[in-house]
Amino acid sequence: MSREFQEIYFNPSNADIVIGIVCWVLLIVFSYLTIKKSKNRLKVSLLEAIRFLCVTCVILLLWEPYLKSIEIPETSPKIAVLWDASQSMKTVDVPSSADGSVIAREQLVSQLLASELWSEIATNEDADLLVSAFSEPVDGIENTSDLFTPLVDLVNDNDNLLAVVMLSDGDWNAGSPPIYAAQKLRTQQVPLFTIPIGSATPLPDLILSDIAAPSFGILGEPIQISFKVTSTIDREIVRMVNFTCSESGQRVTKQLTIPPRGEVQESVIWKVERESESKVNVLIPPVSDEVNLENNTGSFIVRGKEEELRVLVIDSTPRWEYRFIRNALSRDQRVSIDCLLYHPSAIPGGGTDYLATFPSDPTQLQQYDVVFVGDVGISEDQLSATEAELLAGLVKNQATGIVFIPGQRGHQQSLLGSPLGELIPVVLDESAPEGVTSVAPVSLSLTKLGQSSLLTTLGDSAAENIKIWQSLPGFYWHSAVLKAKAGSQILATHGHSRNRFGRLPLLVTSQAGNGKVLYLAHDSAWRWRRGVEDLYHYRFWGQVARWMSYQRKMAVGDRIRLYYTPEQPEPGQTIYFSANATADDGSPLADDQISLMLISPTNKSQLIDLSKSDDIWGGFTGSALIDTSGVWRIEAQIGTDVESRLSTTLISPAINKEKISQEARPEVLAEMAKLTDGAMLRPEQLGSFPSLIDALDAPEPRITLRPLWGDGIYLFAILSLLTSFWVIRKLYGYF
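RE: above sequence
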């Protein structure tokens, strides 16, 4: 742009003009009389001239002066063509006019850009043609789709725009709403012509997404993998989803029935068989009329670990539930069990795997991964208040899992006023410590969450699992539960009883600090052995023990135990680290620090000093930002002790906001074009575009108004005149 000329522009009201003229007339009259009466008319005339300038400036200020600039473009008009290069443009949903086949959106864009129409328009209008892509993937990384930024940048970087053309599917998931960019084009009087690419109705497709798996599993034990399948097909689809390990050939299948244009959230149980990392590929067999096969596959990586669990079981009497839990865990070769039994006579139980007293030393207590708390409470012959506090600290600070199994003696009611009672995920009726007894057996009823939980998986399919739970022998007693606490997860409820809060929650889990909590409100799971021996009873408690200890097993070294949340952070998320460290003698570390080196997939490293927690468990905490997807390496050590170093990895999954096979959004493009006085043209209407350009007026000179009445220089000038008047007047007083 070249600045052609400037002029002063005023915007007074009629009243402002009258007031200004009256002030000028009065000032001239009084100045004339003052000069006439003065003996030194020259000096007084100078003062009155300055006074006149001051009043004139104030009057002009009242009239709102503007500096009007008119800029005329020096360059040729420009026609900009922006085309969408985001991942969603790979969607195959555009019928080809050539042979009737279906092509990708990006192919249609390429065909339209190859047309000689654009150069002909630029020649006829004597305009420059600007063609550029936006939302392109960078370095092979899928980018987001942003319609706002390219339009705003185009206006800011170029003058004399005649028109803007945008070829896109209208889908956006980043940046400000694109309508704001259209508003900016409107203020610049630049019309936007949009060409929608893609079908507003999704073509037949099956889409596999949201595969979620834990980062590791115990060798020989199952893990749960959840996934989602979305269908855009108008009929019900039955498909067998295949999970196959690339290295071992291990295979698991899951049959799905997907409703018309619906989605199914499901999960499968995968048994970890390899100690090293394994890649598991997921495949949905395509449907005959499916247009896009690329989104029928997915994968995840899982690591196998050889781990042994240390379990502590505490109860008051050797009831049936206690006996069968002890037997089930004792037979598990990967579980080491210790039992503490308080008899009513206050003489602790003895024998194999029995403890004589509670391990009140934190050094001994911190070795346990899971603690089962049976029908025991705080009393002289059972747990002390200090021991209850130690157990609560073990869960919160050492990520130990705790399982509450109440009994008919109601001893657990005495825990409610202690830190250990705060961990119980349900609210109990304190007026009924003896619980509730029924004449007929009652079965647990799985909730929607319980039907998909690893803890309650007793069958190989969802239907079989529900049938198993319905066939399990019932219970005759349960604790007096009122409701679940906020933040807890209800896996199963009473088969038919309810209160003012709803169904009675009898199998509930929650998170407490770094550890997990499970509450089973009845003590009759041992009845599940009827007719099948330990098939379901053993499987249930084995899954419970491993699920409760999962957090503690994330990364374990000789002297450092490290866990973090979220387990698989997405780029842009903050990850929170917790660590427990021990001294050479096994006691909790008290006066040293843990240094953690976090190494990104691009080998960029950041050093994090974990700060000491104020507790007796040798706890340390810290956080870091995850900014790149891929496999991150973690190396932690105590101070400068290299031998204490712990090494592990975490996986940051790639965020794919750009979804292939989503329907196009032409309504977004239509709204943008309408706001700018442009138009939305279908690809087949592109031939009418030259006539629309011909109808446009040449860009008018740009007019800008600078408000002088609010300019600091203008106000400074008035202040300078007033100061000069005052100074000269004082000086004249000495003559």
